[in-house]
Amino acid sequence: MGLKDYKRHSRNITRGPRWKALRMQALERDGWACVKCGARRRLEIDHIEPVRDRPDLAWSLANLQTLCAAHHSEKTRIEVGLPPLNPKRQAWAELVRQTGRNVEQKG
Ligand SMILES: [Zn+2]
């Protein structure tokens, strides 16, 4: 299964007002920082047990953790079975994401 298929599983969860409220709860609990590195920027909420495997835990706060974008994509890649990006590609992906974010903010 590819990355797109994998993400499809959580998309049903992560859109809609119910997710927004739960996401806020997770951010508050984790002190608005990545639980792995303490980063406070570009935070994303991760399902510790992926929705694909444990749809019953999709709405459980205990199954959520705050990760920065880099740690989140790293974890997702491992779960999908893709090798971690090598540092050069990771830096490039990071740059592309930041550029995209800047464009969003301007718009
Ligand atoms: Zn991190």
Could you provide a short overview of the structure?
The chain is mostly helical and 107 residues long.
Description:
This protein is mostly helical and 107 residues long. It has one domain. The chain contains 4 helices and 2 strands; from the N terminus they run ααββαα. Strands 1-2 form a two-stranded antiparallel sheet. The mean pLDDT is 86. The protein binds zinc ion. Zinc ion binds next to strand 2 and helix 3.
Topology:
Elements: H1 3-14, H2 17-29, E1 43-47, E2 64-68, H3 69-80, H4 87-106
Comma- or semicolon-separated keywords:
107 residues; binds zinc ion
Number of domains: 1
SS-derived structural category: mainly alpha
Kindly report the average pLDDT value.
Answer: 86
Principal-axis shape: globular
- The proportion of strand residues reads 5-15%
| Cα-atom radius of gyration | 14 Å
Number of helices: 4
**For the report, how would you describe the main beta sheet?**
2 strands, antiparallel
Low-confidence spans: none
Number of strands: 2
Helix content: 40-55%
- Run of helices and strands: HHEEHH
Within the largest sheet, what's the order of strands? 1-2
Q: How many angstroms separate the termini?
A: 34 Å
List the ligand species.
Answer: zinc ion
